[in-house]
Amino acid sequence: MKHKPILLALALLLQVQAVFAQGKAIITGKISNPLSDEIVVATTPNPLIPEEVQTAVQLKGGSFRLEVPVNGAIVAELLHGEEVVPVYLEPGYELNLAFNGDKFLKTLKFEGKGANENNYLVQYTRRFEEVEEYQVMPDNIKLTEKEFTAFLDYRKKDQLKNLEKYTTKSPVSDKFRKFALAEINFGYANDKITYHSLRENVLMTTRLQKPSAEFYTFLKELDLQSQENLLSYTFTTFLRNYAKYNANEAGLKESDKAYFKTAYSSIVEKLQGQVKAVAQADILKQSIQQGHLKYTTEMLQDFKSINKNPELEAYFTKLYNENKEFAIGSPAPDFQLKDVNGAAVSLSDFKGKLVYLNFWSTICGLCMVEMPNMQQLTEQLKGKNVVFLNVGLDEDEAKWKITVTGRKLQGVHLYLKGMDAELVKRYNLKDIPAYFMIDEEGNFISIKPRRPTDRETANDILKHINEGQASAK
């Protein structure tokens, strides 16, 4: 099984902090045909701070011994080469494992204290995560609402039957059983709550009809308050999608300024305790990285006022400071450059208008491919309250000027010599073409708007213009 980034980004957010003393789990093993010279266990000690801690050892003759700090039950990741498998640990566990690197999942087997729990995870992964007929993608997402629900019902029934059959022969701890049930129940819930949006994206179509009245009734049957659910990475993933669902139900899309604030508020209203804190922390991180600065700042202040923990405060403050300069709603760095006639033009000259900013170069193949679409977009929105501002980053100014004038390129064209310029650093440009959308006040609307080739780009621009005019009235 290939390493899944979502497991590192989300799955390891799961752990429940223990109330008893620091402990450890020991993992030893023997690997034949190793895929690399080390083996790693990745954990996240603080469930509110999604930063993993890796414990790694070098193989010696294919053998290894790992001591993993463990506070209570956790679900971590065991990594070797590009392979990864979840591993369940409790203080005092002494696991011994063996596998063939060429047949990782097929040969992986645990012995020792905690073996039953971990062999279940291996068996569950082989049976339900590696078999295509149990997956939502690529085919089952195409099913109708009724058919998709039937598919999920069938899969869940089979998973529950498998759990009972396995644990009858190989007993597991009560804590692990609750974790396994949460994985099954919230695997069902997560796939169902994301069905309509995912189906639209896959089929590249808009929703033809609203979900049936009974489609989301399953949400009322879920136990969302139990802290024990936090051991399940699937539950944590569900919490994120549940918050998105609440924001969508309030009529908001992710591009709306108040989207993450609405999602955050819904969690405050509907959840409690540690579950609420974990969900809030996840939404706050998303908002810091993608959301509107004003609402992110409000959420951060609220979160810090409730969760008074120095480590937690330091983490989110650092993350906030690293991202605030390019957050939606933050001021776009002003600049002054010369146009083809040598006249000085500043970004701030266009306050009062929406600015679609394009960094490009005549020697950039993709830039030149995009330019005809940029011209078409400029022509299409002529007369609207928008300026198409193009900054050429050529080393050869004469070549840039010949291209702009010779092709009679529309929009405002300014020149900046090369990619090493200070402005390139201020806009954090890693590659070109690069696009930004800036509002009438000079603040970022988006640091990654749709490209000119996208048919929806014009609609996005018109939407922002109309919203700005409506709020001005």
UniProtKB/TrEMBL annotation:
UniProt KW Disulfide bond keyword: yes
Assigned GO CC terms: cell envelope
Positions of the Thioredoxin domain: 326-470
Top-level taxonomic group: Bacteria
Annotated compartments: Cell envelope
Leader sequence segment: 1-21
InterPro entries: Redoxin, Thioredoxin-like_sf, Thioredoxin_domain, Thioredoxin_ResA/DsbE_sf
Main location: other
Keywords, alphabetical: Cytochrome c-type biogenesis, Disulfide bond, Redox-active center, Signal
SUPFAM superfamilies per record: Thioredoxin-like
GO molecular function ontology, one term from the record: oxidoreductase activity
Pfam family, one: Redoxin
Keyword Plastid belongs to the record: no
GO BP: cytochrome complex assembly
Name of this chain's protein: TlpA family protein disulfide reductase
Gene source species: Pontibacter cellulosilyticus
